[in-house]
Amino acid sequence: METPRRFRLGDLQLRIMRVLWSSGPATVAQVQEHLEGEPLAYTTVATMLRKMEDRGLVGHRKNQRRFVYRATVSEQDVTRSMADDLVDRVFEGSLADAVSHLLEIREVSREELTRLEQLIRERKRKR
């Protein structure tokens, strides 16, 4: 069985990936326009996309004189990898410690608690 790739994305890289996952293939200008947060220069976005392509996170095709970028990794693979990395590095692999920490520091609605309980019940049934 193939070992899953590990992804460690910075804030800007993750913001760019979210644009590509939600809107599909896009030019640098389109990515720039749809980025959440502080506006960034066109050259900053273009440079980051090139670096991300070097890492295999995105690919491009040429459309006339413009590059159209697309995600080459799935949102599910990236979020799984980043969550696993967080639990491993910060909580020494303890999912219980990670969840306990989040429950202590985050505002959790009754609906979210009910959903968490449901997820735990479902997981127990599978075991």
List descriptors:
127 residues; mainly alpha; Arc Repressor Mutant, subunit A; 2 domains; 3-stranded antiparallel sheet; 3 strands; 61% helix; elongated
Notes on the protein architecture:
By secondary structure, this protein is mainly α. The protein has two domains: 11-71, Orthogonal Bundle (Arc Repressor Mutant, subunit A), CATH 1.10.10.10; 95-127, no CATH class. The protein is built from six helices and three strands. Helix 2 packs across helix 3.
Can I get a quick summary?
This protein is mainly alpha-helical. It is 61% helix and 11% strand.
CATH topology of the largest domain: Arc Repressor Mutant, subunit A
N-C termini distance: 22 Å
Helix content: 55-70%
Strand content: 5-15%
Walk across the major sheet and give the strand order.
1-3-2
Number of helices: 6
Could you list the spans in which at least 5 consecutive residues all have pLDDT below 50? Answer: none
User: Would you identify the CATH architecture of the largest domain?
Assistant: Orthogonal Bundle
What is the N-to-C order of secondary-structure elements (H for helix, E for strand)? HEHHEEHHH
The number of distinct β-strands equals 3
List the helices and strands and how they pair.
Elements: H1 11-23, E1 26-27, H2 28-34, H3 42-54, E2 58-63, E3 66-71, H4 75-90, H5 95-105, H6 110-126
Helix pairs in contact: 2-3
